[in-house]
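Q: I'm building a small set of examples for a reading group on sequence design. Run inverse folding on the following structure and report the sequence directly after it, with nothing in between.
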């Protein structure tokens, strides 16, 4: 399931953080991680109209910005 979610991050970057978090626990998953993956799938099902489209015959420059605070991360 995590592999299919990782594949979707190229067109759906809005779920990249959540997939990265549950991917950390792929070697030793618990029931809470499975529930989180199910929530991600429900979110994706409800937001199918969103996503990025990469046209192949035009020049595309994608700029992204992030403001992350990794100091307060309790998973590390």
């Amino acid at each position: 399931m995590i592999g299919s979610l990782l594949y979707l991050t190229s067109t759906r970057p809005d779920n990249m953080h959540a997939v990265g978090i549950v991917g950390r626990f792929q070697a030793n998953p618990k029931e809470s991680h499975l529930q989180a993956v199910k929530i991600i799938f429900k979110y994706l099902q409800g937001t199918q109209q969103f996503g990025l489209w990469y046209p192949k015959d035009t020049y595309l420059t994608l700029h992204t910005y992030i403001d992350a605070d990794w100091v307060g991360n309790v998973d590390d």
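The chain has three helices and no strands.
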